[in-house]
Amino acid sequence: MCSAVLFFSPHGRLVLGLHSMKVLIKPRLQKDKWSLYWKTSMATKTELLDPFELEVSPDDTAAALKAKVGNMLSWQPVDRLLRLEGFEEPWELCAMRGVELPDSATLESAGVTHGAEVTIVRKVLVAEGACTPGKRRA
Questions:
Q1: Which of 75, 134, 64, 137 is nearest to 104 (CA)?
Q2: pTM to 2 decimals?
Q3: Which of 15-19, 37-41, 45-49, 94-98 has the lowest mean pLDDT?
Q4: Domain boundaries in the chain?
């Protein structure tokens, strides 16, 4: 259920504003098998995690929503992830109905409403082609 609040705008008009809303979060974990030699993804596997409802503010940004979901799922913060050579993509994305939401867009301006399904994808790189130190190839 949305909660609403009435307030006066700076122009003296009575305005109805949404205080919070619930959205259905559909988290995904995208694992890319990353070739250290070719510096590209060789295979991708996406795991569908259990969906859950989350109460958010319409004024939250897509970036804030991704951070909130990451924190709830105990994902490591994006700024602490190791970026392998050649990987230029963003670590996370937030999408609704197949369209990625810009990080700076508020949920309200992006069209997210109460009950909307929002997909959050976290990318994980699995390095392939590295030799383990101290071991020799036969």
A1: 64
A2: 0.79
A3: 15-19
A4: 20-128
